[in-house]
């Protein structure tokens, strides 16, 4: 079945590579993003009434995946990467139809000179993600208080402590005076959820990691449950 | 952007036509359906772990829509059909990319002779709906207790009273002894939500309605908030 889908908008996010992206929406509240609608979807009237909703569903394409095939089972990081579960029992991005689903907070809707830009919070989306649908979050239908969540019944603990060396701490403070007011909070929320691939938990010899955040290179070291941010500087890539 | 999507399974549901389908999942708990997986997705291991989840997300195609185009605004039945809202502020099936999203209850997973069949409850799905993805419902990410629901903050009232004339009542009792154990409950839950298109609420002269349910023709009359089921018999269509 070949279906013609239109990309209705593109995500601009602080997450510039897959490593470090929160594993579900809402886990990193400080992760903000914008969604700019593409023509012909950049019409104010197509969004009339959306401002009354605090959250919305984004349907998107997992566009950063090189792997084209799917496998019947995957190894969720939540289970330490050792246990195989069915792909349909997980939110793995490697699935028969690479569509993602995220409930994100809608902060505000910006209209300017023919542009419609949604300002979002709590995203788990790679920069450049193509959006194929936006739906309002309907609490009476979507917030199922009695639902049982299998192997992922609770949120990940987010239990790591995050400290900064003096130099990246100072850089962070400086950047917060400018265009990145919640940068420290974003770094702490991102790292405390342990972004390492599950198989690193069996590799105690490797303890230094890096990711891109906005256009900065962030590096940290991990020792047990303790993380130290060692570097934060503008990327030269 | 042309993307190749695979239909991974097909819904078999009591709802054989669009009229009468609940307007969201969960509004008619007695609305059961099965989802039979198509090859190569009919592998037991692709569902390992799903049995621990009480609910799942179905992503599906709105296949029964004749209209190919989308409009920037729609008139939600919830607002009486008089008010235009942006298409992205609604769950209207007429949208740029005709993908639907439903959180349904997973009753059980049946495996028999190479088949995988998911038994579902609370569906709002037309018979024959093509499914393109199944994801577990993750309470910690998806059940947002604080979400605000705009013009659809509360569930529809489901306030109509539903009575049966003696003949369809008897037919119902007989059918409940056979293959349709919860038929009366299904009829009551479906009709009390007022399945009429919004514009009928301004047409008091028309008060007789019909829909197909399984392979039965169901007819009822509506007088204000009171519904009387007048006919229930096997369809000869």
From TrEMBL, chains A, B:
Species classification: Bacteria, Pseudomonadati, Thermodesulfobacteriota, Desulfuromonadia, Desulfuromonadales
CDD domains: UPF0066
Keywords in alphabetical order: Methyltransferase, S-adenosyl-L-methionine, Transferase
TsaA-like domain: residues covered: 5-146
Membership in a protein family: Belongs to the tRNA methyltransferase O family.
Xref: PANTHER family: TRNA (ADENINE(37)-N6)-METHYLTRANSFERASE
Claim: Methyltransferase is one of the keywords in the record: yes
Keyword S-adenosyl-L-methionine found: yes
Superkingdom, taxonomy of origin: Bacteria
GO molecular function ontology, one term from the record: tRNA (L-threonylcarbamoyladenosine(37)-C2) methyltransferase activity
BP GO annotations: methylation
Protein name according to UniProt: tRNA-Thr(GGU) m(6)t(6)A37 methyltransferase TsaA
């Amino acid at each position: 079945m070949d279906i013609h889908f239109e990309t209705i908008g593109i995500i601009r996010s602080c997450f510039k590579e897959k490593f470090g992206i929160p594993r579900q929406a809402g886990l990193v509240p400080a992760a903000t993003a914008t969604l700019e609608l593409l023509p012909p979807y950049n019409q104010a009237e197509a969004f009339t009434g959306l401002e009354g909703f605090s959250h919305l569903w984004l349907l998107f394409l997992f566009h950063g995946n090189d792997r084209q095939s799917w496998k019947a089972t995957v190894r969720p990081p939540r289970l330490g990467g050792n246990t195989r579960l069915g792909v349909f029992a997980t939110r793995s991005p490697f699935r028969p139809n690479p569509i993602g689903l995220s409930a994100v907070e809608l902060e505000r809707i910006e209209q300017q000179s023919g542009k419609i830009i949604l300002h979002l919070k709590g995203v788990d989306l790679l920069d450049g993600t193509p959006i194929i649908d936006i739906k309002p979050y309907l609490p009476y239908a979507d917030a199922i208080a009695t639902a049982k969540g299998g192997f992922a019944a609770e949120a990940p603990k987010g239990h790591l402590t995050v400290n900064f060396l003096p130099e990246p701490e100072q850089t962070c403070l400086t950047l917060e005076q400018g265009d990145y007011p919640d940068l420290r909070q974003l770094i702490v929320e991102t790292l405390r959820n342990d972004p390492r691939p599950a198989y690193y938990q069996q590799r105690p010899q490797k303890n230094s990691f890096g990711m891109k955040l906005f256009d900065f290179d962030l590096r940290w070291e991990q020792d047990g449950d303790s993380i130290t941010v060692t570097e934060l500087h503008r990327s030269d890539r």
